[in-house]
Amino acid sequence: MNDVKTEYSHLIDLNDYPVEWWEQVVNLGKEIYENPEKYAHKLDGKILATLFYEPSTRTQMSFQTAMLRLGGTLIGFDNPSTSSVAKGENLKDTTKVVSSYADVLVIRHPLAGAAKAAALTSDCPIINAGDGGHLHPTQTLTDMLTLKLEKGRLNDLTIGLCGDLKFGRTVHSLVKAMSCFSGNKFVFFSTPELRIPSYVRDILDAGGIEYEEIDALEKGIDKLDVLYMTRIQRERFASEEEYSAQKDIYVLDRHKLMRSKPDLAVLHPLPRVDEITVDVDGDSRACYFKQARYGVFVRMALILTLLENDCCKPKLLSGKEYNNVKCSNDKCITNCEHYLPKSFKGFGDNLECEFCNERTLL
Ligand code: NCD
After folding, report:
1. Ligand 1 center to residue 129 CA distance, Å?
2. Most buried in the list 58, 93, 134, 154, measured by CB within 10 Å?
């Protein structure tokens, strides 16, 4: 691709920015939460576009609310079948056109690496609102603001993550981010089939970060400061049988909660299906509805930060192109949008795809 754009600050992966940058965004989110009226006209006349190729309630509406509360306006679609995507338009062309109408573009897509692919040709900053089972950085900013407000800190926490750790993009982004703060430890509760991906475990191993994998919530809930529950994501399984075999294995109820610390914070990116019983909602440890609300303030902070002219501009691709190599991940955007560069980073005998982070044997 010879028209790769480099002049915008996108949020594709939080780890493209230094930790101080995330802290700045989260702290600004806290400041906006405390003084929203000061920010009500900061983006008068600006336009935010939402391109949602996958269903969403909170992420899409919290971005819309964030932009409206900053004084801006909105365009976009939440159902690609009513846009030119239904006529076969590729991601490159849709992005190129919509980014010439808007000041900032938020994208959610079922394929891993789609936000990075969009950023390559966008004429405005792109925000990744979830790319398949890969990453969800703005949910992580939301989770960080929640921890800051509910636990008072982002370090020295024992964080349990439970449920779909394989396909859970919120889990991958959160673990990558929280592993950068000192003293955090992780406890992963999942079946072997939905285990946390090896590329995430490799990051923890390389950083010497403590973690354990446990098969039952009862066996480890007592040591946690934070419990991050997740839904088993029906739409990411190859068949209904595989999904049925995994659902309803991990359920947080009042009985299990009795074993936890009194100041445990229970988070969930939502939507909840059955993995937290409704009788937990009234418990002081249940933070998930507050968490959804905090998402608006941190997204206001993010939009303001990305639209500031002096925000840093991370490089989108820094690996090498291997145009004869096919990424081994069927759900990678490079296997669908064929004009994209097959860009990889060296990783031992394996190449790591720069769009989805999966490994491909040379
Ligand atoms: C999550 C997502 O879309 O990845 N939800 C969200 O953005 N708040 C989790 C999920 O769908 O289960």
Report:
1. 9
2. 134
